[in-house]
Amino acid sequence: MGNCQAVNNKATSADGHDDGGSSRKQPPVDVTVTETSIPSSIENDKFQIPIKIFTPTTTANSTTKRAVVFFIHGGIFALGDMHSHPTISHALCQLGLVVVTASFRNGEEAPHESNVTMRDLNDVVDHCLQTYKDLPFGLVGSSSGGFFAIHLCQTLHSTKTIAFCIPICPVADPFKRASYLRSSISGSAKSDGYNAVHTPEKSKYILEKQLSFWQSDKCMLEARESTRSNTKNVPTLLIIGSADKNVPFDVTNEVQGWATRTVVIGGKGHELCDKIVEGYGCYLPDIERFLEHCLREE
Fold first, then answer.
1. For the chain, what percentages of helix, strand and coil (3-state, to nearest 5) are there?
2. pLDDT the model gives residue 24
3. Are the C-beta atoms of 141 and 71 separated by less than 8 Å?
4. Dihedral sign computed on CA atoms, order 38, 287, 13, 80
5. Rounded Cα gap, residues 261 and 255, in angstroms
6. What is the pTM of this model?
7. How high is the pLDDT of residue 29?
8. Among 49, 90, 145, 241, which is most exposed with the fewest C-beta within 10 angstroms?
9. What are the per-10-residue average pLDDT scores of the chain (298 residues)?
């Protein structure tokens, strides 16, 4: 493991956002942020996977460290790193979660069929399980990271126990998302039944990035099989926006069918992946209730 470096130590309250009526009415939790790296398990691969750890520190008035989560960042299967979505990471810490993020390889650097991305993600999962043996382990993912979170839940070895999964606006079906983007590029998205759509130019950019990782429709069709059912019975909270131009409703249809609970935030889009919406649209109370449900037997 690389040297662990503290890069931040401050009090935060979900970056100042209203908690929307969360049941955890407690003082803001101090959050310590550290950075380190872990070695790749791929033979003869010298890559060190950078990781960032958000740790809630114990205060006199609260019990922290309820569980550890690997928060898998989004980025069209090609962009992003461990610094992505800091507002979400800090907000999860406020719920007593140790949050681990990582700069895993993806996109054209590590296309799907190379299996490098999944190996990196598995290495981070193993690190979490080994480092935090006494804490329940969960997966959180936003956008493309939501796909990876769901996929890991259904494909990890049975010895690796996952207490819960929280995909936020996940690209649960990459092929359906590609189909929507192509429809938008051709100008037929509205007539094809999509309500909130990107411009053809934006859709082309997203599709190009997505395909830099998947490379073919065949790969996307095969990959979506892992998200069609909850074969491992992992408690799953699906969070989506009703006006998401990046992930239309039908991209998550299959997951909506089997998720433990689905929360739809009306009038909101893909910004849910990157910030905490204020007031009644805040989904932190939903995560809090879900954690209480999943962790009550732990």
1. 40, 20, 40
2. 46
3. yes
4. positive
5. 10
6. 0.90
7. 84
8. 49
9. 46 38 60 97 96 84 80 98 96 95 97 98 97 96 98 90 97 98 96 94 98 98 94 96 96 97 95 88 94 84
Pick left, alpha or beta for residue 35 (phi over 0 → left; psi -120 to 50 → alpha; otherwise beta). Answer: beta
The size of the chain, in residues, is 298
Tell how strand 48-56 and strand 30-39 pair up: antiparallel
Distance CA 99, CA 85 (A): 12
> What pLDDT does residue 22 have?
42
Alpha carbon distance 149, 37 (integer Å): 20
Which stretches within 137-216 are classed as H helix?
A: 144-155, 174-186, 200-214
By CB atoms closer than 10 A (0-12, 13-18, 19+), residue 13 is: middle
Strand (E) or helix (H) holding 220 = helix 217-223
By the 8 A CB rule, do 237 and 290 touch?
yes
Q: Which residue has the tokens 């996307």?
A: 220
CA Rg, the chain, in Å?
A: 18
Q: What pLDDT score does 20 carry? A: 41
279 vs 296: CA distance, rounded Å: 27
